[in-house]
Design goal:
By secondary structure, this protein is of the alpha+beta class. Among the domains are: about 130 residues; about 160 residues, Heat Shock Protein 90. The protein is about 65% helix and about 10% strand. The protein has 16 helices and seven strands. Strands 2-4-5-7-6 form a five-stranded mixed sheet. A hairpin with a 3-residue loop joins strand 4 and strand 5. Helix 1 packs antiparallel against helix 2, helix 5 runs antiparallel to helix 6 and helix 7 packs antiparallel against helix 8. Keywords: Kinase, Membrane, Transferase, Transmembrane, Transmembrane helix, Two-component regulatory system.
Length: about 425
């Protein structure tokens, strides 16, 4: 799934653009109010007009870090310094010494804040120090008023710069986490597909080869070796020694004792996808989930579904049908060929629920964890993984001697708001 890029920097650039405009209005209004007190108002007017044009023309630059380049930042800072150093030239000495506001006034803080957002606290410290020195030069001495302003600007700008560095690091970490999450989900999807197709076919070839004997037995032994190696790879143990063992002792065991276990656990013919389940891949409109469940009905499988269609997005219907097929396949493998299964489809206002129950011997405690470590991902990926990606949950309840029930739940909100393809929590 594509995640939208999260940017904490963009709102700050927009806020800085607004600050520059408001600071310009303040500086211009303050100058107009005191213009008669200036010694050379014509020079001050020229600077204020130039400052206004510069601010308005450079507004597009204040929209992103890419547009606000380092040469532009230096030029912007020079405009502020020019106004500060021009103030004692156009204003009277008495007003300058008395602490009158410089021509750019608060606008001079804008370039410093731009340095902070663009380059972090070090750039902010350098820019604020330059502006502070220029204010001391303009006043001709160090006074309590300008020291207060300089220190305030220094702390505010460096603080914003530090926050920006932390925010960028957090944004990068979040982006990396989203990439890892996406890659993990893709691996899980591939693991489901492999489990539902390749591994089951290899197990079937191994069993049939052992039954036929002769050259077919050798083919079955090789299929068993590849199954064990592929299970180790899917389980993520190939790089930690699992794959090595699969290629040596694991492959040998596959042909002997391991092959027997594989044949007993996985070699039965898997539940085949129905024509309806295949056709749904080409659908673009809502699909009736009940129509995908009914082909599973047979002598040992009972399907109960509402009379009205249970309409779902094609992807959600297909994944639910595949999860039910995986549950029925587990019934065939582990509960035995004589076990019966019941499928119940419930269409509720808040969620769609599908239950698959059997009358087999149940699952012993710890069996699912052992199966996942062995690379048998029928429950963890083919069932729970699919429901998690739909935004739903899969709960498995098993009592020894009383059978097993798998309950699949998909909230309507996940199907409508996110198309049934977003991840949510999984009940384990």
């Amino acid at each position: 799934m594509a995640h939208p890029r999260i940017s904490v920097e963009q709102p700050l650039w927009r806020a800085l653009g607004g600050f520059r405009v408001l600071a310009l209005v303040y500086a211009f209004a303050k100058y107009v109010y005191h213009s008669e007190q200036y010694a050379h108002p014509a020079g001050a007017w020229a600077y204020m007009i130039a400052l206004t044009l510069w601010t308005l023309l450079t507004l597009p630059r204040m929209t992103s870090a890419a547009r606000c380049t380092r040469p532009f930042l230096i030029a912007d800072l020079c405009v502020a310094l020019a106004g500060i150093l021009l103030t004692p030239v156009v204003d009277t000495h008495a007003r300058v010494v008395g602490g009158a506001t410089t021509l750019p006034s608060f606008w001079a803080a804008g370039p410093v804040l731009a340095f902070a957002i663009k380059g972090g606290w070090r750039w902010a410290a350098a820019a604020s120090a330059i502006v502070g020195v220029s204010n001391i030069v303009e006043r001709g001495r160090i006074a309590a008023g300008n020291v207060h302003s300089i220190v305030l600007l220094f702390f505010v700008s460096t603080g914003i710069g530090y926050v920006m560095e932390v925010a960028r690091s957090s944004e990068w970490a979040l982006s990396r986490a989203l990439q890892i999450e996406a890659a993990t989900r893709e691996r899980e999807r591939l693991a489901r597909d492999i489990h539902d197709s390749v591994l089951q076919v290899l197990a079937m070839v191994q069993r049939r080869g052992n039954e036929v004997g002769g050259e077919a037995a050798e083919l079955g032994r090789m299929a068993g070796e590849q199954e064990v190696a592929l299970r180790a790879l899917v389980a993520g143990e190939a790089g930690r020694g699992g794959g090595k063992n699969a290629g040596r002792g694991g492959g040998k065991n596959a042909g002997r004792g391991g092959g027997k276990n594989a044949a007993r656990d996985d070699a039965r013919v898997p539940v085949q996808r129905t024509p309806l389940a295949q056709d749904v891949e080409r659908e673009t409109g809502p699909v009736d989930l009940s129509s995908l469940m009914r082909p599973y009905a047979g002598a040992k499988v009972t399907v109960a579904a509402p009379a009205e269609p249970v309409l779902l997005p094609p992807h959600a219907a297909r994944e639910l049908a595949a999860a039910v097929a995986a549950a029925l396949d587990n019934v065939t493998r582990h509960a035995g060929p004589d076990a019966c299964a019941w499928i119940l489809v419930e269409d509720e206002p808040q969620e769609v629920r599908v239950s698959v129950r059997d009358d087999g011997p149940g699952i012993r405690k710890g069996r699912l964890a052992d199966a996942e470590r062995e690379g048998r991902l029928g429950v963890s990926q083919s069932i729970r993984g699919r429901l998690r990606d739909l935004g739903g949950t899969a709960e498995l309840t098993s009592v020894p001697g009383q059978g097993t029930e798998v309950e699949l739940r998909v909230p309507r909100s996940a199907l409508k708001g996110r198309g049934g393809a977003e991840a949510c929590r999984t009940t384990r």
